[in-house]
Structures are given as structure tokens and as C-alpha cells.
Amino acid sequence: MNEAKRRERKENKMKTIKTTTIILGIILITMISIIGIYTQKANQMKNNIKEYTYAMDLKGERNIKLSVSTETEEVIKDSEGNIVKEATEEEIEQKGYKKEQIAKNGQDILTVENYKKTKERIEKRLKKLGVENYIVSVNEENGEILVKIPEDKITDTIVSNINTIGKLEIIDTETKEVLINNEDVKTSSVMYNNTQNGTAVYLEIAFNKEGKKKLEEISKTYVKTENINNTENNTTAENATEESTENKVENSTTESKTNETSTEEVKQITMKIDDTEIMTTSFDNPITTGKIQLSVGTIATDNNKLQEYISQAREIATILDSGNLPIKYDISKNEYILSSIEKQDITKIIIIVAIVAVIGIIALIVKYKSNGLLAGISYVGLVAIYMLLIRYANVAISIESIFGIISILVLNYIFVKVLLSNIDKIKEEKIENKVNKATSKTYSKFFIRIIPICIMTVVFCFIKWIPISSFGMIAFWGLLLIAIYNLVITRTLLKIQLEEK
């Protein structure tokens, strides 16, 4: 009898430990989902949990119109109309050259192909700058480009980078010959190095196979060298005799050596981005890695300066990686459009949904007692994981997707209620694995009935219209989570409660 009681106490203890462990895990995930995980970085507390991505109908949007630039530049032409790269005022007068104003965007580059290429490269820049919800369209007749992006704290920075040409050139400082350009760039990245004095930020440019060869050849040609001139003057007097009353010197030899060191003047290269000189230098040693590092700013001693330099380096890296724009554009319109939904409205929706969910969980507890309590706790865990999943699935939350989230929460409540009902129905039956059989019955009954919803959800995911695609993605991840989470967590909690092995 005592042995049976000890076994029962041990089983109850294990049951409590298992249940408590799962519940604590759910509480932890819920806290992470609501509060986040904070760590100290560069003297600042930062939340490591990704923020939600909001669509333009919730966040407000920035509408930017880019028009083909009408900017002109002055050129020098000879008598035959050919452009002369460089000429002094004296040469212009002597040779009869003329100065003319011509459009920077020549007619030969104002083509549909270049309009489309510009649109594609702007889209690449937006992606690299972290904009996940945008609309870019181009008028193929006049090249006009319309860009719509969500409004946030970095929108102005994004706008300032949209129409930057991004032309990279490494040229011979003297002859102006272009040695390397954008076509030779593979990737760009931001690096930083902590020192005793602070943090140094670098922009690293990695070149492709052809660019690597060019860089190695350039670094060998434009390298600092030193000439060491050794002059040896040997004067030897042989068989020279000179009589002296005191001594006699025979075979006297005098050797003089002079070492002269001079630095040879070498050719230099100049790096330019959009015709702005970044640096002029020569190389200490040949570069065989295919990478060069450029220092951005000075040594940063505080977090604000560090973030500023990192931001500058990241912007340049983004422009270089996305490719230079073949056409120069001007921003002709830049306006902010407010969202029709205010934050207060979203907060009200969240509060209403939370109240309804709490009432629903209380109803489960009243009807199904301890099973209802465990199912309610499991329900809270699913909501917490769902909110984290939405963040990391890069789904833009729109007005439509909010209804998608509510739909998933309703469907999961229905699933849990059906599961508890099925467990109650077979609880009195003398069969093994009651929870497993109830779960199997619930899955087959529930998911067969929502097959049309599943098909619709998958179709919506592939529609390019943001409101519909976001609804589809929200619903897809929600249905997948219902299927997996309840099988792993809800079923396990109920099995422990009913002491099933």
C-alpha cells in the first residue's frame, strides 16, 4: 500500500514538473513577444527582437516623383563639333574652340531600356536599405518614376539616396584615364574596428574577377618605391713609393662609399564617387585580395558619431551594390500622406481582441475545468509565438492583414474547443491514448472543413497587391502554426493532465 502511494506521489510530482516546465516556457515566450530581449550595445540598451513591419495604409506613406534631370553642363568643342576633354583658355582662343551648354542626360541614354534599368536599381536600393513594402512604377514614355514607401524615421535618408547616381571611378590622377568603374565591383560592406581611442569605421569594396585583376595591376603600377644609389669610389695607389726621413708608405689604399636614398615620384590614382573625390593615393604594396578598405570619418568616441559613420558607410555600400543609375533624375515631388488609421484606433482593436480572447478562455475554464485552463494557457502561448513569427516572416501588417490575424485567432479557438469537446466525449470510454485519438479526430474534422480557406490563402500569397498578399501570408503562417503548435504543446499538456503515457 505504501509502495503504491509512493509511486502515485512520484507520478504526481513528475506530472507537476512537466506541466510547470511547459507553462513557464509559455510565460517566457509571452514576455519576450510583449517586452522583448534587451542587451547593451555601444553604451545603449537595444531590443534584439525584430520590430513589426507596417504597410503604408497603417504607417502613412511618402510619395516621391522622380523626373529626368534637365541639368546642363559646359563642354568645349572643336571646329568639327567634337568634345575636347581639357583645354586652357589660351588653347581655346588659339584653336578656335567653343564653349557650349549641353544636357547631362544625352538623347542617346534616354531610352526605355535605361528607364527600366533605373527602376530596377532603385528597387535594389530600397531592399538593401531595409524597405520591405514599396511601390515603384515607371512611365516608359518620359521616364518619370513614382516611388511609394512607408513613412518612418529613416525615410528622409532613403529619399536622399534614391536618385544618387552612384558612379564609382578609380582614375589616373594625371591623365584622368578611368582604370576601374562600377562594372568591376562585386560587393560592398561596412566594417569597424575597436581601438583604445575609439571605433574606426571602414567601407570595404570587394571586386569581381575582372576587377580583382585590374586592382592588382594598378597596385603594382601605382606603388610607392624608393631608389637607393650606392656610389663606390675606390682609389688605389699601387707601386707608389714616397721617401721620407721617418717612414715609407707602400700600397696605400683609400675607399670611399656614399649611400644616397631618394623617394621616386610615382603616379597616383584618385577615387571618385559621382565626380566627388574620395581620396588620392598610391599603394604601399600590391593588392592581391581584390579588396580595398576606405576609412569613413574619424575615430568615433561616442555612440552618436559611430552610428553616423556606420550610416554613411552603409549608404555608400548600398549605392555601389545596387549599381549606378544610367540616367540622372531630380526629385520633383516629395510629399507625406497620413494614414487613415491612427495608432489609437489600432490600440482599441488590440484591446477589444484581448478582452474577447480572455472571455473565451474563461468560458473554456468554466466548461472544461482544468483541461480548459491548460488549453487557455496554451492558447496564450500560440498568440505569443504567432506575433513573433509575423515579425520574422517579414510580413507587412496592413488593415487587411489585421483581419487575417483575428481570423487565425478565431480559428485556433474553434480548434481548441473542438479538441476539448472530443476529449470529453471519449473520456469515459475504456480505450488507451484518449488524447491522441481525440486529437486525430479533431485534425481530420477541422482541416477538411477549412480546405477552401487553405487554398484561398495560398493563392493570396502569390498576388502582388500588398493588401491581399499580406493577408495571405498572415493567414498561411497562422494555419501552419495552428497545425504544428497544437500537436506539440496543447496535446502534450492535455496528455499530462490525463496521465497518459
In short:
The protein has 501 residues and is of the alpha+beta class. It is built from twelve helices and 20 strands.
Weakly predicted, low-confidence segments: 227-263
- Major sheet, described briefly? 4 strands, antiparallel
| Fraction in beta strands | 15-25%
Spatial order of the strands forming the largest sheet: 8-9-4-19
CATH class label of the largest domain: Mainly Alpha
- The separation of the N and C termini measures 23 Å
Q: Compute the number of strand runs.
A: 20
Rounded average pLDDT:
82
Number of domains: 3
- CATH-assigned fold name of the largest domain: Multidrug efflux transporter AcrB transmembrane fold
Basic shape: elongated
Content-based structural category: alpha+beta
Helix content: 40-55%
| Count of individual helical segments | 12
Rg measurement, Å = 37 Å
Question: What would CATH call the homologous superfamily of the largest domain?
Answer: Multidrug efflux transporter AcrB transmembrane domain
Protein model, in words:
This protein has 501 residues and is an alpha+beta fold. It has 3 domains: 2-41 and 341-497, Multidrug efflux transporter AcrB transmembrane fold (Up-down Bundle); 61-67 and 113-224 and 266-337, Gyrase A, domain 2 (2-Layer Sandwich); 71-104, no CATH class. It contains 12 helices and 20 strands. It has helices at 2-34, 56-59, 89-95, 112-128, 155-162, 209-221, 303-322, 343-392, 399-426, 434-449, 451-461, 466-497; strands spanning 38-40, 45-47, 53-54, 61-68, 72-77, 83-84, 98-103, 135-138, 145-150, 168-172, 178-181, 185-194, 199-207, 226-236, 253-263, 269-273, 276-281, 291-300, 329-337, 396-397. The strands form 7 sheets. The chain has a 4-stranded antiparallel sheet. It has a 4-stranded antiparallel sheet with strand order 11-10-16-17, covered by helices on one side. A hairpin with a 4-residue loop joins strand 12 (185-194) and strand 13 (199-207). The longest helix has 50 residues, at 343-392. The protein is elongated. Mean pLDDT is 82; it is low at 227-263.
